[in-house]
Amino acid sequence: MTDLSATTDVTDRPSGAAESGVQDRIRDYLDRTAPETPCLVVDLAAVRRNYQALRSALPDARICYAVKANPAPEVVATLAALGSSFDVASPGEIDLCLAQGASPESISYGNTIKKPRDIARAHRLGVRLFVTDSEADLLNIAESAPGSQVFCRVLVDNKGSRTPFGRKFGCTPQTAVRLLRRAAELGLDPYGVSFHIGSQQLDPSAWEHGIRAAREVFDGLAEHGVTPRMVNLGGGLPASYTESAPPLGDYAEHIERALDRHFGARRPELLIEPGRQVVGDAGVLRTEVVLVTASAGDDRRWVYLDVGRYNGLAETEGEAITYRLRTSRDGDECGPVVLAGPTCDGDDVLYQHTRYDLPLTLRGGDRVDLLSAGAYTASYSSVCFNGIAPLPTHCIDGDELA
Amino acid sequence: MTDLSATTDVTDRPSGAAESGVQDRIRDYLDRTAPETPCLVVDLAAVRRNYQALRSALPDARICYAVKANPAPEVVATLAALGSSFDVASPGEIDLCLAQGASPESISYGNTIKKPRDIARAHRLGVRLFVTDSEADLLNIAESAPGSQVFCRVLVDNKGSRTPFGRKFGCTPQTAVRLLRRAAELGLDPYGVSFHIGSQQLDPSAWEHGIRAAREVFDGLAEHGVTPRMVNLGGGLPASYTESAPPLGDYAEHIERALDRHFGARRPELLIEPGRQVVGDAGVLRTEVVLVTASAGDDRRWVYLDVGRYNGLAETEGEAITYRLRTSRDGDECGPVVLAGPTCDGDDVLYQHTRYDLPLTLRGGDRVDLLSAGAYTASYSSVCFNGIAPLPTHCIDGDELA
Fold first, then answer.
1. Which chain B positions have a beta carbon within 8 Å of A381's beta carbon?
2. Which residues of A are catalytic?
3. What is the pLDDT of residues B93-132, one digit of tens each?
4. How far apart are CA B10 and CA A370, in angstroms?
5. Which residue of B has its CA nearest to A175?
6. CA distance B338 to chain A (A)
């Protein structure tokens, strides 16, 4: 059992005082407006700041926001206004981006699994950049999006990630060489290589694996006279949960060093696909305690919240993501709890292995805020499981409030 | 690895020829109307037949359909018209039932986790039957739904269940005695005891544990002059997935025998809360193959469907529920596959440990039907994860079609 105090001071976190300010601003908004719970509040000023921080840390990389992390239209519009590009997973996300002011040229179709008619629809809408990792998909792209840029996803080690990807995506560097050569033969532009070192990656040196693999593919292609130009660094940059993550600068430094090592002066164009890093720390999820009960089994109280696995906290599966908490009773003496969601589902338990301590005075009706909950929450909500409505999102703009 | 052929003959399943007829009727509908995939089709005639089969098997039990299994309005209306009662998890499900013709007296508020204002709302709407398993909740019921009937959920062994409940719900028989005594003191009606032996329970003798625990509570209460009258047998009756389940009659027989053993001639009133048994075998989920690729790692092909963990197949988590499949290439030679969903999420893999064999000729655009998919699918769908729309449900009435 990891000893994590839910009342840990947040000021020692990566984004430090700035993030703390976001949390306070959102709390003020919540306290003032007292919306129905549960709800997610996202501060668009924080989204802008996180985007700019990455822009400064990796000035040469084209930022493709991973829309799936938080597809709130206001978030997409805010990023489009800053000139961000977008990593999308489906035609639904393409429509969303275009509706919020993104240009088709700013869109990267980043899902290796696509129907031919979805590729054709993307192409019709002006999208010209597609990922692939299999011959079947490549043939579909050549047929339905002729002449487009393609990049090939290679499978790399996900160690250090809180939510690794397994073997679903990516191919070997050898296969990538074969596929990108084939792409050229098919009249596509063999633009480059992508990889993903796993989401919420806590080890900044992990990118080394992917950059080395990309170099391997570049070399393999050079032997055949094919010249790719781009390396897509994928996602993986962290948000601030209970386990501390290194500061953004450390990630940038490791990435720059690996690029120097493997590409030297022949730097490729760079893409990066942040999701959590942009929107995670920009959100707070407010919940209400439904019930606090004594357990039959051990000395831990059970605290049931009005949010759970099926209306926003999908990433608590396997206790992979451990959110920091703030309660309306902070300061009172604390004791260990099991945290659970509101449905009649036995799997709707958030934390029973990870240690959380909450105030002994906590009772039904009290507030519990989950900090840094802006990514991968609302978009996972079920439509109506147990008759419970999906998690709503409120967007505020801290700069306008200030 | 369990050796399960995805093309297993379905006629040896519990509901045999009847269920097979349902699948054929739904296939005819799907082939004729060719709706956008993925989609779930539910045959209301099969829902009626499954309900009547349970009514015949356990004629003394009041059937409370577990709405969470499939909250399609047509399903609820069909069951309300047959005189079914309803097990609901939230105010949202109460509203749904009332709107579809259920009376407030037919509703059992079966979630131990409820806000006081939700209890009050249910009471205002006429609901008079509530579950509990903690003092905090009991006090809320006494305050917000005075005079109501309450039953206390005890925790029993979930062995044999494909999706056991863990320790989230239920208390010890000793605590149940204490709570029901307290209920009487608080002016509530200490109506009885409930238990849940785990969903998709493949062992019909499992109910024995719960019925014995209920008897223990009845005896404990009798010592204090309190006389409960009801035993709620909970859910757990199976649908027909790849692992065969015993026929419904076996379940009824075991339940009757356990009731005789523990209650003899002093039979309590009975409630039962079926979900899967009513609606599971009444549904077919039609999907389209997006892509078939060779794997880098082993000899299994990867088959990507347009449905996955986040748009309908939540119960493939941990490969707990293994659906039977039917493809548009059945009859062709088969080989092993990994089955995965359409999102950019590494956890969106349906089956990689359970062995599935599918036709070697299978390719993008082909149809794959998931049989007996009527329960716990559409209601779990995410609102828009990866920009993918929730799973739609089409209801047909096989009796009207015939």
1. 382-383
2. 344
3. 999 999 999 999 999 999 999 999 999 999 999 999 999 9
4. 47
5. B296
6. 9
For tokens 């900044």, name the residue: A204
**CA A365, chain centre distance (Å):** 31
Closest chain B CA to residue A172: B296
Collapsing DSSP to helix, strand or coil, B236 comes out as coil
Query: Residue A238 above 50 pLDDT?
Result: yes
A387–B93 C-beta distance less than 8 A: yes
Handedness of CA B140, B143, B144, B149 (dihedral sign): positive
**Nearest Cα to Cα of residue A45 among A69, A19, A67:** A19
Residue B137: inside a domain, yes or no? Answer: yes
Q: Which residues of B touch A384 (CB under 8 A)?
A: 71, 92, 379
Residue A2 belongs to a domain:
no
| Same domain (yes/no): B55, B174 | yes
Q: Domain limits at B275?
A: 44-279
pLDDT of residue B298: 73
Q: Percent of chain B having pLDDT more than 90?
A: 88
pLDDT for position A160:
82
**CB hemisphere CA count around A109 (13 angstroms):** 33
Q: Mention every residue, 6+ apart, whose C-beta is less than 8 A from residue A260.
A: none
Q: Which of B279, B313, B335 is the last residue of a domain?
A: B279
Rounded distance between C-alpha atoms, residue A89 and residue A127, angstroms: 13
Q: How far is CA A334 from CA A291, A337, A356, A369, B223, in A?
A: 17, 9, 9, 16, 39
**Residue B137 to chain A, least CA–CA distance (Å):** 7
Question: Of A85, A148, A6, A116, which Cα lies nearest the Cα of B291?
Answer: A116
pLDDT (tens digit per residue) in B360-381: 999 999 999 999 999 999 999 9
* Domain-embedded: residue B2: no
Domain of A199, CATH number, reads 3.20.20.10
pLDDT for position B16 = 58
Give the total residue count for chain B: 402
In this prediction the ipTM stands at 0.93
Nearest CB among B135, B166, B290 relative to A113 is that of: B290
Instruction: Give the distance from residue B343's alpha carbon to the nearest chain A alpha carbon, in angstroms.
Output: 7
DSSP per-residue codes, A344-368 = S-TT-EEEEEEEEEEETT--TT-EE
Place of tokens 């948000």: A239
